[in-house]
Design goal:
The structure is a single chain. This protein is of the alpha+beta class and 474 residues long. It folds into 3 domains: 165 residues, no CATH class; 154 residues, no CATH class; 88 residues, no CATH class. Helices cover 54% and strands 7% of the residues. Strands 4-3-5-6 form a 4-stranded antiparallel beta sheet. It has a two-stranded antiparallel ribbon with strand order 1-2. Helix 10 packs parallel to helix 18. The radius of gyration is 25 Å and the shape is globular.
């Protein structure tokens, strides 16, 4: 009985009407950030580096069907990404724009495992969640069109709003409603909380906290930085950064949630991510988190921010009284909310199903919010033997891989296996009979001496990747 009462109270909280403003600023900030990120990616020539000038792409397990399309399609997908980001930013055909952004972004990321990053995974998830929330109910082209329809009753506008309001049983009236169910904001708060807290939990190990690794290695490499360089040569600095990083990740969400500490917490978000961005060259991830955590600010704060875009005669108190109807609970929405986050909470723990050092085997490492936990490098020398003549030759990896692909492949077991199978298929077409592929792979982890990853005499073509434990690794 108590459990049922608690669940009912939880559902009531999910559907508590709240102002739309935090969701609007999140939509605008995310759309702008994605637009600038895609344009930056294009400007730096990374489309060519990642997708055009490549001979092999490494596949995510279970997504082998995601193939590298022709160059014109690659450029088209990035063009559609720009359109999706603009649509999210200005709230035009918003739900379709969010769906377009999710599909194009996720497809491009699934093309090559080489370029996996936690923040790319986060962007895909946020893009997906945006499809299901009414983030264009205010300060958007769609809401402007709704106002036009209310005045003119033009059927073309009505048809457009109906088509673009996916996953909404009553799309047109909702666009004029300033109130939304609380779960639409909780989606993003909980998702951000999972990212931070799991990153902090992952740092709760002896290597990170008691040996200050890999920060000892990374900070020493930054001794030439102006002002702070000398500080990075002190051993105590690495220990301080290790503990501060763990405490920051595990607690920052609570400080952001509590109003008395919110401003100080957000100041620490800026300092933390600016510093990590300068030190470790981790792309747009710092900006993603600085933008994302703004959703923890109050409704009034978001209303004041949006007032810069559109002057309003109403005060915040007056604005939220508009159409403050009770929002009815939806069984499917509630179920989807629970299932989605159960997966997000449970999936990162799958590494417990495997023996061995997670950082060595990397089984269960990806999609688990393990951010900057190791300094790992490898060298991989591949040999292809003709099954008939027993003649063996050394493979020049540069013939097939770009420098980044070779670097990532040389230290990740599943990529090593994929590359071996690629080589077997390639040389079989060249006339090598029943090719046997073996490799000498040496790995160094957190500054330790290099060790063999597996038996160099092992024929990798006889091994198939799977969810099962990689018992062939040392």
């Amino acid at each position: 009985m108590q459990l049922q009462t608690t669940f009912q109270s939880f559902v009531r909280q999910l559907y508590q009407p709240v102002p739309v403003y935090p969701l609007v600023t999140f939509r605008i900030a995310f759309g702008l950030m994605m637009l600038l990120s895609v344009l930056r990616f294009w400007y730096l020539g990374w489309i060519e580096d990642h997708y055009i000038n490549t001979k092999i792409t490494f596949k995510y397990f279970g997504f082998e069907w995601v193939t590298l399309p022709p160059p014109f399609v690659v450029y088209l997908l990035h063009g559609l990404l720009v359109l999706g980001a603009v649509g999210i930013l200005i709230g035009f055909a918003y739900r379709l724009a969010a769906l377009l952004h999710f599909c194009c972004f996720t497809y491009l990321e699934l093309i090559d495992l080489t370029y996996y990053l936690n923040h790319y995974y986060f962007v895909s998830l946020v893009s997906l969640l945006l499809v299901f929330v009414p983030a264009a109910q205010a300060y958007s082209v769609d809401s402007w069109l709704q106002e036009k329809y209310n005045k003119t009753k033009h059927q073309f506008i009505y048809f457009f709003l109906q088509i673009t309001s996916l996953f909404s049983s009553s799309p047109t009236p909702l666009l004029s409603n300033i109130q939304i169910p609380q779960w639409t904001i909780w989606l993003f708060k909980v998702q951000i909380a999972i990212v931070y807290i799991y990153a902090g939990i992952a740092k709760m190990n002896s290597t990170w906290l008691l040996e200050a690794l890999p920060l000892k290695i990374w900070l020493l490499a930054q001794d030439g930085m102006p002002v702070l360089g000398k500080l990075f040569t002190w051993e105590i600095t690495a220990y301080a950064f290790s503990w501060i990083g763990m405490l920051y990740d595990t607690t920052i969400i609570f400080w952001l949630t509590w109003r008395p500490t919110r401003l100080w917490a957000y100041a620490s978000v800026i300092v933390f991510h600016v510093l990590t961005g300068l030190l470790f060259q981790i792309g747009v991830f710092p900006l993603v988190m600085m933008i994302g955590t703004l959703i923890f600010f109050s409704n009034e704060w978001h209303y004041r921010c949006l007032s810069w875009l559109k002057k309003s005669k109403n005060s915040f108190e007056d604005s939220v009284k508009i159409n403050a109807n009770q929002i009815q609970a939806n069984f499917w929405v509630t179920s989807g909310f629970i299932v989605y986050f159960l997966f997000q909470i449970i999936f990162p723990w799958r590494f417990l199903l495997y023996d061995g050092n997670l950082l060595w085997t990397e089984q269960g490492y990806r999609f688990s919010w393990r951010v900057m936990l190791m300094e790992k490098a490898g060298t991989a020398t591949f040999y292809v033997q003709d099954g008939a003549t027993k003649r063996e030759g050394v493979v020049d990896n540069r013939e097939f891989l770009n420098p980044h692909q070779e670097k990532q492949m040389a230290m990740q077991p599943d990529m090593l296996l994929q590359y071996a199978h690629f080589l077997a298929a390639y040389y079989a077409k060249k006339g090598v009979q029943q090719p046997k592929v073996r490799a000498e792979v040496y790995i160094t982890l957190n500054g330790q001496p290099s060790k063999l990853l597996f038996d160099p005499q092992l024929d990798l073509t006889k091994i198939q990747d799977s969810w099962q434990e990689k018992t062939w690794l040392y």
